[in-house]
Amino acid sequence: MTTTSTSSIAPRLMERHYCGVPVKFNWCVGIAQEISINSIFIILEKPCLVDEGAEGLLRLEHDDILIQEKAKVVRVENHGIAVISMEKESVLKGIAYHINNGIEYIHPLEDGIKINFKGHVNANCLIDFVDAYRNNKPGTKYLLDFHNATDITPSGIGMLLMMADHNKGKKSDIKLVNFNNAIQTAVQDSHIDQTAVKLDMHYETLTDTNITVQVEEEKRDDGQDQVVIRVNGVFDASCREAFIAAYRHRPENTHYLLDFANLQHLERPELGTILMLVRHNGTDKSRIKVINSNSRVRQLFAKVKLGRLLDFS
Known about the structure:
Helix content: 10-25%
Structural class: alpha/beta
CATH superfamily of the largest domain: STAS domain
Largest sheet: 6 strands, antiparallel, barrel
CATH topology of the largest domain: Transcription Regulator spoIIAA
Oligomer: single chain
Radius of gyration: 21 Å
Number of helices: 7
CATH class of the largest domain: Alpha Beta
CATH architecture of the largest domain: 2-Layer Sandwich
Distance between the termini: 39 Å
């Protein structure tokens, strides 16, 4: 195995997780749609002659780090291949962990900043967390949303204390919401309330009513049917079921239009959700068109070279 570095949730460790990173296996080029602790499913950019049982070199980039492992094909499908690592300690485990834990996304609000967490909240996301507030003035308002988080470690609590110390504002300036019992207990057991640091444990569940998936059918200019899928707000795991339902029972080679005009943020694992549509529909990129995406979403698409499989014209 060759790598310059290594980086889900415990009860789900053996499950596959949505991914969306460029990957190569020998001469086959594609994008990783699913990843587990030692295997990966690759949506191929174009047909590639490879047989089940074939061995070779798996290469992918994650956070600008080149990873190479010996691997073997365990399943061949029309639009992709399943590959399993032959390494005793696969780096894929670290990638799966990174994808499913830490900071989910950071989004500006009218009066502050919202930070969403997922999985385990600990010092592994320290750099991203500090970057979210380091240049902000004291008294900035933060909404820390733990809806998709499972637990928080002492190092994670330490990160919150660092933010509060930097912010030097009122208790209500940093509000924690949507936390489960484990997170509530961990924060309370740390006796933050006995320190000079000010954090507001807000015991309520906030929901974002702007997160929706809308599906419509219409006629294209050439008279063919087309399915329009619009995602509003944040495209995260909460949208996955509705997005999949939009195409699940439709035939291969259906025309789709993905309208992201009202999409504020695309969570990277949901690239894998989009790739499931490619896997279902076939790799004729002209049949899945993406329109009205903002600059941040386009940058993410470009980074993983999704233009190989989707029409962004």
